[in-house]
Amino acid sequence: MAVPIQGAGTYAVEAMLGSLVPADGGALVLVHGVYGQRAVDALRRMGRRVVALEAGEGALPDFDALSRELAKEPGLTHVHTVHSETTTGQLLPLRAISDAVVAAGRRLLVDAMSSFGAISLDGVVADGIAASANKCLEGVPGLAFVLCRQGTMAPGRAPSLSLDLHAQHARLIKDGQFRFTPPTHVLAALDAALGLHAEEGGTRARGARYAENMRQLVSGMRALGYTLLLPDERQGPIIATFHEPAGWNFAAFYGFLQERGFAIYPGSLARTPSFRIGCIGQVFPSDIQRFLTAVAAYSESA
Ligand SMILES: *Cc1c(COP(=O)(O)O)cnc(C)c1O
Description:
This protein is α/β, with parallel strands linked by helices. Helices cover 40% and strands 18% of the residues.
């Protein structure tokens, strides 16, 4: 079942963790960037037992450590992972993580915020999958949701009044109403966005468009001398992180691109100076080519 929750994507992640991890349970969290770390912070705030398995930026999950920690602590009832870690653009091997969690007899929770609608979740066994209207579904911000397996929610478990998936779902079933003011325009926009998603050909077609955007972006940036942070096999199709060249001025680069109609992202890595470029939204290969022309002009002028 899908339980909608008003607010940004983080609200759905926090609602999922609070509503599905019981007070006497806990979660092991795979941390590959700021979004994994945010789940750790949320669990600590609500007083749930949490073990963070911290990987280096862009590193593969340590499956041996995962099994070891779970064997050591039977109280860790859940494993939480991000699917597409937007900090770096890394796509985590979700199917393998799901298999490991099932083998350990635990329950999986997934932050699929920046993959849902573009990357298939086939074969993934999870109790909860959190996503929002405004990433790969290409709606507007203001609504998030959690796909929950039947029977996993319990009344009174969530430590928050508003971020309580059980109560939210119960009320929607009872009379079709949100408990608190619904984001009406956002819901209408999401309805339209889902129509466009289906029209494009669904998750497979959308993912293929993003992957082609990414392919052209990476090869074009490489031709201009920029280097990708991640090895190709860990790079997902959503967002790419590039190393800052020596003597780099991000503000000047950002301003130059902004004047030409492009908004990019600063890096958010603690140790590696970097910047990021997203491939999602109503972005097509022709936009990527226009973008690369602008980057080439900047490189010539700098
Ligand atoms: C965008 C995103 C979120 C949610 O971010 P909000 O700013 O709260 O909408 C959570 N996890 C991942 C991986 C994201 O990319």
